[in-house]
Amino acid sequence: MGMLTQYLFLACLINISYALYLSSQDSKYPGYLIKFGYLRRSSLSRHGGSTNVKDDDFRNALRNFQNYVQIPASGQLDDATKDMMTRDRCQAKDTAVGMRRRRYTTIGNWPKKHLTYKITKYSSKISKNEVDSIIFLAFSVWSDPSGITVTKRNGGRTDMEVRFESIAPRADAHIYGNTNNRHKTTVITLNDDIDWSQDFSTGLPNLFQTASHEVGHALGLGHTGVVGAMMYPVYDLGIKIFGLHDDDKQGIEDIYNNVKTVSYPGRFIYKKNRGNLETSFNNFKERITHSFGPMPDIGNLNLPTEFFQEGF
Question: Residue span of the signal peptide, if any (predicted)?
Answer without folding.
Answer: 1-19
